[in-house]
Design goal:
Strand content: over 45%
Largest sheet: 10 strands, mixed
Number of strands: 21
Number of helices: 3
Shape: elongated
CATH class of the largest domain: Mainly Beta
Radius of gyration: 26 Å
Strand order of the largest sheet: 7-4-9-10-2-12-21-20-14-18
Order of helices and strands: HHHEEEEEEEEEEEEEEEEEEEEE
Distance between the termini: 61 Å
CATH superfamily of the largest domain: Immunoglobulins
Oligomer: single chain
Bound molecules: calcium ion
Number of domains: 3
CATH architecture of the largest domain: Sandwich
CATH topology of the largest domain: Immunoglobulin-like
Structural class: alpha+beta
Length: about 325
């Protein structure tokens, strides 16, 4: 039994070593051994000290587990674009790391991929061609704490009423963590200015969910145009809208009811001065886009089955015309 007196400091030092190296669960196991030994040896001051250290290690484990639960999130989970015949469709996925831990993973993408490229750590660009055979590519991505990566997808050769699909999956250690799909097709209609896509996104309690919308008009309009839009949610939620660069704030609707008369509401961009937020299309432009960030707030487990909707309408001839409905679930 005499050896036990030498073992106790070894256990204590080893537990500290493990803790300093971030091996918290092993540190807790060893510290439990140290406590058991110090009780057996009847050295209460050491038992007391080690119990405090164990409590600290367990608290660190809890914090780590909370962080680990903040998984990388790929949005939207599904997305559909219907563009004017002969034009290119644009889809976008946002891959966000809402935790304070650095995350390394792989983006696995499947579709009629013609080309792909990368610009910096934050953007992948993929070009699809409906005529190209379906294939799968994998690209490694490292996401810093709080960082996101954008996957921009352009869809060429879309056929009338035949959907071309693309899937994007975030893998960690080869296991899928989050995934989304995008389909596009063309349609002969849409000779006016219209929102050409709709999305379904997952609720996340950890960050504001980004949703990008493309607005398309036919090329032959010729003149510039300010497109007024209205965004309304089925349940109260904060909605921020940014321009195509993602950095210029257009409006904030603090409760998502579509007006700007509530506390915290503000219109930052109203190019035609009619009180409604808008986007400017230049003379030759056929496309504009907006990105909204929505915060549905904390959703009770019992309400998880209830889908929330966000609708976008454009102002045309003095009337609001509903163009797209996004689903949040
Ligand atoms: Ca409002
Ligand atoms: Ca306006």
């Amino acid at each position: 039994m005499g050896n036990k007196f030498h073992e106790l400091p070894l256990y204590e030092k080893y537990a500290e070593f493990l803790r300093l190296n971030g091996r918290l669960r092993e540190a807790a196991d060893i510290m439990r051994e140290a406590i058991r030994l110090s009780v057996a040896m009847n050295v209460p001051h050491r038992t007391g000290k080690n119990r405090i250290l164990l409590a600290e290690i367990l608290e660190s484990i809890k914090e780590l587990e909370e962080e680990e639960s903040r998984k990388v999130d790929l949005q939207p989970m599904s997305s559909r674009s219907v563009v004017v015949r002969g034009s290119v469709a644009y889809g976008r996925f946002f891959v966000t790391n809402p935790s304070t831990l650095k995350k390394a993973g792989t983006l696995k993408m499947t579709g009629s991929i013609a080309t792909d490229s990368r610009s910096g750590a934050g953007q992948l660009t993929v070009s699809l061609d409906a005529a190209v055979a379906v294939k799968t590519i994998e690209r490694p991505v490292v996401l810093d704490p709080g960082a996101s990566c954008v996957v921009d997808v352009s869809g060429h050769g879309g056929q009338e009423d035949v959907e071309t699909g693309f899937s994007c999956i975030w893998l960690e250690h080869g296991e899928p963590v989050s995934e989304g799909i995008w389909v596009y097709k063309t349609s002969e209609v849409a000779t006016r200015t219209t929102v050409v896509d709709a999305h379904a996104v997952r609720i996340s309690p950890f960050y504001l969910i980004p949703i990008r919308h493309m607005i398309q008009r036919t090329a032959n309009i010729g003149t510039g145009e300010n497109v007024d839009f209205k965004i309304m949610a089925s349940e109260p939620m904060r909605i921020e809208v940014y321009d195509s660069t993602g950095t210029k704030l257009i409006c904030v609707d603090a409760n998502g009811d579509g007006d700007f008369s509530d506390k915290g509401d503000l219109v930052y961009q109203d190019l035609n001065g009619n009180g409604h937020p808008d986007l400017g299309l230049g003379e030759g432009d056929t496309l504009a886009s907006l990105t909204m960030y929505v915060d549905p707030g904390q959703v009770e487990a019992a309400d998880r089955d209830v889908s929330r909707e966000v609708s976008i309408s454009l102002l045309e001839g003095g009337e609001w015309r509903l163009d797209a409905v996004d689903v949040i679930k």
